[in-house]
């Protein structure tokens, strides 16, 4: 089972968005299910996503069809959206001899309050143990 | 402008998010709120004549670093490993954690930070320093802001000039 299958089978995903980008980080295509890329298409992604900007050195080292980079529980995928998202990033062939970056985003922000509550309780319990 | 990815990591409750908030927003809250996953933000700093975009990844705390998803470290230039001076349990894995991080980032800069300096006396600080398997690079207080800016500026400087760890 790969990471995407794992995510779609085991988590309460409210939305999934797939974005294709070129090597300069410009959006080529997007399903726009979590956020609209309409106004972002003429701007490189590093201008609207610190997350992507910081991943770009690693993205550029990706080889064609190598396993995707899996980044779980990212809370700030763009500079204007907060939530909780799992991301995969991979390099694939697209069209005639083109290679693109595929960025998959799985949104399970609706689970965030429950996750936060459970983790907070666990951490607070362990913090009290020091005494 | 140069962009650098910096990872803030360490055990939970050591004050990583507080250091992040102090550096990025100049804010501090006494309330402990656990981080889920990772939060990314940036701050532009100027060192000499160079502008650096410091992209800071604030990672949810784990008792040992081998529990942190390795993918978070991809593309990183620097790591800030944070401990809590008031909680000796957070020093226990220092040696193995640093070795683990060094393997992940063999050419990167790793700074060891002892946070919550405001909760210990100078004498306690010296005792802790003597007992640690390796010294920390900075003792900070996200609460008072002591050494926080200096820490990130030093990181920026080391990355800019590619100064290796000692």
Neighbour order of strands in the largest sheet of chain B: 2-3-1-4-5-6
Question: Which regions of chain A are unreliable across 5 or more consecutive residues at pLDDT < 50?
Answer: 4-10
Strand content of chain A: 25-35%
Shape of chain B: globular
Q: H/E element string of chain B?
A: EHEEEHEHEH
Largest sheet of chain B: 6 strands, mixed
**Structural class by helix and strand composition of chain A:** alpha+beta
Rg on CA atoms of chain B, Å? 15 Å
Shape of chain A: elongated
Task: Round the mean pLDDT of chain B to the nearest integer and report it.
Answer: 94
Tell me the radius of gyration of chain A: 17 Å
Work out the helicity level of chain A: 25-40%
* Amino- and carboxy-terminal Cα gap of chain A: 43 Å
Task: State the helix count of chain A.
Answer: 3
**Can you summarize the main beta sheet of chain A?**
5 strands, antiparallel
Q: Which protein chains make the most extensive interface, counting residues with beta carbons within 8 Å of the other chain's beta carbons? A: A-B, 29 and 27 residues
From the structure provided, what is the oligomeric state, counting identical versus distinct chains? heterodimer
For the record, give the distance between the C-alpha atoms at the N and C termini of chain B, rounded to a whole number: 27 Å
SSE class of chain B? alpha/beta
Query: Main sheet of chain A: which strands, in order across?
Result: 2-1-5-4-3
Q: What is the count of helical runs of chain B?
A: 4
Annotation keywords:
heterodimer, A: 131 residues, alpha+beta, five-stranded antiparallel β-sheet, 3 helices, 5 strands, 27% helix, 28% strand, elongated, B: 166 residues, alpha/beta, 4 helices, 6 strands
Q: How do the helices and strands line up, and which of them pair or pack?
A:
The complex is a heterodimer of chains A (131) and B (166).
Chain A: H1 3-10, E1 15-21, E2 27-30, H2 50-59, E3 69-74, E4 85-94, E5 98-107, H3 112-129
Chain B: E1 2-10, H1 16-25, E2 38-47, E3 50-59, E4 78-84, H2 94-104, E5 109-115, H3 122-131, E6 138-139, H4 148-160
Parallel strand pairs in B: 1-3, 1-4, 4-5, 5-6
Antiparallel strand pairs in B: 2-3
